[in-house]
Amino acid sequence: MTEFGLRLAISLTQIAAVMGIVVITVLILTLAERKVLGWMQDRMGPMEVGPYGILQPFADAIKLFFKEDIIPAGANKFLFTMAPILCLIPAFIGFAVIPWGPNQTFEVGGITVRPFVISDINIGILYVLAFASLGAYGIILGGWASNSKYSLLGGLRSAAQIISYELNVGLSIVGVLILGGSLSLVKITDAQAGGFWHWYVFALPAPQIFALVVYVISSVAETNRVPFDLPEAESELVAGFFTEYSGLRFAFFFLAEYANMVLVSCVAAALFLGGWNAPYPGTIMAFIGLPSLAWAENTMWFAVKTYSFLFLFFWLRATLPRLRYDQLMRFGWKVLLPIALGNIVVTALAVFFFQ
Amino acid sequence: MASTATTKRLNLHEWFKTITFYEILVGMKATLSHLLNYRPVTLQYPHEKRTLPDNYRGMLALLRYDDGTEKCVGCDLCEAACPSRVIRVVSAEVPGEPTKRYSKEYYMDMTRCLFCGMCVDACPVDALGMTREFEWAVYDKRQLHLNKQQLLAIGDRSFPVREKRLELQHPNVAFFNVAFKHVPPKPD
After folding, report:
1. Is A174 exposed, middle or buried (0-12, 13-18, 19+ CB in 10 A)?
2. Is-contact B42 B114, C-beta < 8 A?
3. What is the pTM of this model?
4. Across the strands, what pairs with B41?
5. Which residues on B lie below 8 Å from A323 (Cβ)?
6. Distance (Å, whole) CA A127 – CA B29
7. Are A40 and B32 within 8 A, CB to CB?
8. With the C-alpha atoms ordered B169, B175, B178, B183, is the resulting torsion angle positive or negative?
9. What is the rounded end-to-end Cα distance, in angstroms, of chain B?
10. Residues B94, B100 contacting (CB under 8 angstroms)
11. pLDDT of A237-275, one tens digit each?
């Protein structure tokens, strides 16, 4: 009983830490996105709350928290309430299998604790993909339950888009799975240790550079970010599936979108860019004689890779206009899907003959 | 020429541009160069204000002479010139001086004013002026119905340097001017 209690306490501590990090990252992202977009468009971004607007996320959070919560007449109340939660939980739950740092363990009261991953399940990446597609239910139900034509159109677009691009995400990572020989993100990351030429983007015999491009494009589409933001196209659909949402429920959708961004960035970093591995063999901390602090360096590298992907998201948003709907579908099915399939064939042949 | 360009098959160069997302990369380079050479065009308005042009047409005001008397002679020309019917003048004889008139009441409905400046042009005695004030947002739009005292107060705070009495400047228009009992008679 005490052992179970200890295990529970350790797990809950890890979950709370990861949730805290993700929520803080989302807070940073909301500000960083507006700032980066502003700078790229010769504006300043938020400047009023705090010095250079750095307290803007807190002001936004307080505003959303105290806003009136409106349920429109004719809305399906149960589903309207459920949809933001259905959107938020899958976005957060995927972080359970992301390895944030080196695969080391320590003992607490006879229990082995892995501090940098909540749970290393052997189908980690499948679990992430499965919950990412569950998040689409939140969007579709939110669109349907609002009893508004704009929300419904946004939800329908989202359904078609997420189904199309989910496929490309799934196929683009198959090459990595062939190279890594495992579905566990921890094992895949471990296999990429020893310098950037071992990362699966560059690794011989089959560099996954095309898979990375397909994955990034598809994940932008899957998180409904700008070149593919048709579900919330504000110039066509007011705000898409969350048109009728306000206050805390809107904040849930908002949080889910940004958490999804962080999640796909973490997965991209772990699968293609070596996760927490530094781009040189070993770590500087171990080299200068502080191997007990190597985890800090590795975690820092993971954060750098994740934030680079997040910056890429903002960069694309500042640059590209929105695609038309048929262009989106054609691009997904006629361009990305053949590339992903070809990548699987090439990788499989290369691994078969050269490894 | 255009037809040959469109019928030309996709050559290797264009194909390479397509698969490397060349045009998207050009756009991303443009946005990144703006990020690196960050020169915002934003003016942080309440904290810093732009310099107004010299001929800026702002809030309207009624003016006074240097001895504190009102310039307005109640001729109603501003009311006639106004395209939006902003101005309403109630003109009256100066008590005790039947040849001279003044505006007993003077109203401006600034909710309708389009700041064209025609009333200022129309005024024969330069009794109207356009100030450089523009921050006139109010919570109740009835606060924008201004009377004579308010317009004179705007003029007092915006035009500290006043003209001399007209009758001392130009005898032809001195006829229109107002004499008040509390004003000392002109020296002659």
Report:
1. middle
2. no
3. 0.79
4. none
5. none
6. 36
7. yes
8. positive
9. 88
10. yes
11. 777 777 778 888 888 888 888 888 899 898 888 888 888
Cis upstream peptide for A205 (omega within 30°): yes
Look at phi and psi of residue A42 and say left if phi exceeds 0, alpha if psi is from -120 to 50, else beta. Answer: left
Predicted confidence (pLDDT) per residue in A311-348, tens digit: 999 998 888 888 888 888 888 888 889 988 999 998 88
The residues, ordered by sequence, that sit 6+ positions from A176 with a Cβ below 8 Å of its Cβ are A188, A200, A208, A211, A271, A272
Quote the pLDDT of residue B173: 53
Residue type, A251: A
Alpha carbon distance B8, A92 (integer Å): 51
Nearest-neighbour CA in chain B from A48: distance (Å): 9
Q: What is the rounded CA–CA span in Å between residue B95 and residue A202?
A: 98
Structure tokens of A61?
């959070």
Q: Report which DSSP code applies to B125.
A: T
- Residue B106: enclosing H or E segment and its boundaries? strand B97-109
The end-to-end CA distance of chain A, in Å, is 48
Name the residue among B24, B35, B41 with its Cβ closest to that of A40. B35
Q: Considering only the beta carbons, identify the residue of A36, A42, A315 that sits closest to B39.
A: A42
Contacts of A40 in chain B (CB under 8 A): 31-32, 34-35
State yes or no: pLDDT of B3 exceeds 80: no
Dist CA A72 CA A148 (whole Å): 9
What is d(CA A144, CA A77) in angstroms, rounded to the nearest whole number?
11
Q: How large is the ipTM? A: 0.71
A318 in contact with chain B, both atoms CB, cutoff 8 A: yes
Residue B103 backbone phi and psi in degrees, to 5: -90, 110
Q: Which two tokens stand for residue A345?
A: 């064939």
Structure tokens at A270: 């772990």
